[in-house]
Design goal:
Blueprint: E1 4-10, H1 17-25, E2 32-38, H2 45-55, E3 59-63, H3 70-80, E4 85-88, E5 94-95, H4 99-110, E6 114-117, E7 119-123, E8 126-130, E9 164-167, H5 168-172, H6 187-197, E10 201-204, E11 209-213, H7 229-242, H8 247-267, H9 274-290, H10 293-302, H11 305-315
Parallel strand pairs: 1-2, 1-4, 2-3, 6-10, 7-11
Antiparallel strand pairs: 4-9, 5-11, 6-9, 7-8
Helix pairs in contact: 6-7, 7-8, 8-9, 8-10, 8-11
């Protein structure tokens, strides 16, 4: 039986894919599989992955005939996975040698649904350690208890899918798949669903994933219309949380986070193409009016004056016809 399935989407990352694959080779084991999903790349990435299928132990190569985005590519990998445990890696990131054996140990010892880990962020030559915003380590907890408080960074704000490992029972329960077609913020509805509906999790102080920031082809660096998928992602978070049995407690966190993300994008609006910037403002104004207004009032009252003022001004913006998320 396959012990661990590693799902790795690739899209136009010919410059970085060799390093990613080299690090996977340094993590290979007879009972590990590496599902390499090419999301219809237009550069040399498919050729690199075709070679890896022959040379990398445990490699399984899957190619999309049409680009579907990161969420859809990960779902393809989940559907192909045979492992007792699953994890993710992005096609421009890399791993420390032997990392996956170290990652398996805590989830097998603790027996929980999923384990979250710290990571190293790499921007050019700079290296920064980013930790799961959860103080208790190596202890099994209820994921629902780690959503709050609303006014501090918590586990649902640390939404990196590749910073952890997940038991197959989450797939069987329908909790590990991503929202099809989301091209950005795909991790947000996913991490909220895990924390609302999974039964157990833990965090560990393990480093070994190296997250590459500032990649020119990364969607986080491109100010086109695909970035606006964050609105659809957070609409889903708010709508699903509103149906939760603890909606009254959890909605303030969902709404406040949504507001913070809108404010963040407005604060760097110059990086968007002009037409996209106008659409960002219009769609964000409509999104604010969709939120539970009493919860939104409280969220704005709790934020710093700069962000609150920016969002209140946007909230008063006249509704544009034909604008939808």
């Amino acid at each position: 039986m396959v012990k661990l399935s590693v799902i790795v989407p690739f899209y136009n990352v010919q410059q970085y894919a060799p390093d990613t694959l080299k690090s996977l080779r340094a993590n290979a084991r007879a009972d590990f599989e590496f599902i390499l999903v090419d999301d219809c790349s237009r550069d040399e990435t498919p050729d690199i992955l075709a070679r890896a299928e022959r040379e990398l132990p445990g490699a399984v190569y899957v190619r999309h005939e049409k680009n579907g985005g990161l969420a859809t590519a990960r779902n393809t990998g989940i559907d192909a996975a045979r492992g007792e445990y699953l994890t993710f890696l992005d096609g421009d990131d890399w791993l420390a040698p032997g990392y996956y054996e170290q990652l398996l140990a805590p989830i097998e010892d603790l027996g929980c649904d999923f384990v979250r880990t710290d990571h190293v962020q790499c921007t050019a030559r700079a290296r920064t350690i980013h930790r799961v915003p959860q103080g208790r380590r190596g202890v099994v907890m209820n994921p629902r208890d780690a959503i709050l408080p609303a006014d501090r960074s918590t586990s649902v704000d640390y939404a990196y899918a590749w910073a952890g490992i997940y038991h197959r029972r989450l797939v069987d329960r329908g909790l590990l798949h991503f929202t099809h077609g989301l091209r950005t913020a795909e991790d947000r509805p996913w991490i909220w669903k895990l924390h609302r509906e999974a039964e157990s999790f833990a965090t560990v102080g393990l480093l070994g994933v190296f997250y590459r920031r500032g990649v020119a082809s990364s969607l986080t660096q491109i100010g086109d219309v695909r970035q606006l998928d964050f609105i659809r992602a957070f609409d889903q978070v708010v709508a699903e949380t509103a149906e939760d049995r603890d909606a009254e407690k959890l909605l303030p966190k969902a709404v406040r986070t949504y507001c913070a993300i809108i404010s963040h994008h407005l604060g760097s609006i110059e990086r968007f193409e002009p037409a996209v910037a106008r659409k960002l403002k219009s769609m964000s104004a409509v999104a604010l009016r969709r939120m539970p207004q009493d919860v939104l009032d409280d969220a704005l009252d709790s934020m710093d004056i700069q962000r609150a003022t920016r969002l209140r001004r946007l909230r008063r913006r006249p509704a544009a016809t034909g604008v939808a998320a």
